[in-house]
């Protein structure tokens, strides 16, 4: 089960709920496992269940106006996905795909069971609304970013967010629990791969990140956050 034992990650639906509600939600549905690269949700499919992520990391993937892949968000333990098609009778199809970046374990909860849970617990319905608004806030912010002139601050914001979602502290700084290639990072920020590589070099020059082959680690998280919050600049 998800609830009860461990403090949920800040910013997730589980984090917004009190015990014993967390425990109750964590026990709904059945446990289902996905291998890395497998799709948890296919865009366009009918919404018949929601998923509460128990462990692992998945990408919520969409397409931009040119058909290029955009990583809309990351889902990790404590996140609930697949509620949009389940709750909107006018748009019952999945609006995005969700792809496992590692082994992912979820509670797969049938739509009627999830609706009954929301009917019974208004806190959970309000929590879902809060999460939807947070996603909207991120989407609104992302619209202000032009891909060709993406700033150091924006890259730092996105890296900081990724570390909150799927990062862990190491002896030398912070690393990701799943392998983020430069291609993945470029899709997530989003920016072109060449632009990203050029900008990452500046972060490296300032000792904020280190690159080992295809992957990066964050060696100075405090400075990264300072750049993200506009308290210091690399321009
Ligand atoms: N921009 C986004 N940010 C975060 N999550 C999203 C975003 N778009 C879609 N999702 C999630 O991805 C799910 C895909 O299936 P649904 O449309 O049912 O519900 C969707 C949301 O849970």
UniProtKB/TrEMBL annotation:
SMART domains assigned to the protein according to its UniProt record, in alphabetical order: cNMP (SM00100), HTH_CRP (SM00419)
Domain Cyclic nucleotide-binding: from-to ranges: 13-118
Keyword Ribosomal protein: no
Record InterPro entries: cNMP-bd_CS, cNMP-bd_dom, cNMP-bd_dom_sf, Env_Response_Regulators, HTH_CRP, RmlC-like_jellyroll, WH_DNA-bd_sf
Superkingdom classification of source: Bacteria
Signal peptide range in chain numbering: none
CDD domains assigned to the protein according to its UniProt record, in alphabetical order: CAP_ED
Keywords: DNA-binding, Transcription, Transcription regulation
Record-annotated HTH crp-type domain positions: 153-222
Keyword match DNA repair: no
UniProt cross-references to PANTHER family, sorted A to Z: CRP FAMILY TRANSCRIPTIONAL REGULATORY PROTEIN, HTH-TYPE TRANSCRIPTIONAL REGULATOR ARCR
Name by which UniProt lists this protein: Crp/Fnr family transcriptional regulator
Organism: Prauserella salsuginis
Record lineage: Bacteria, Bacillati, Actinomycetota, Actinomycetes, Pseudonocardiales
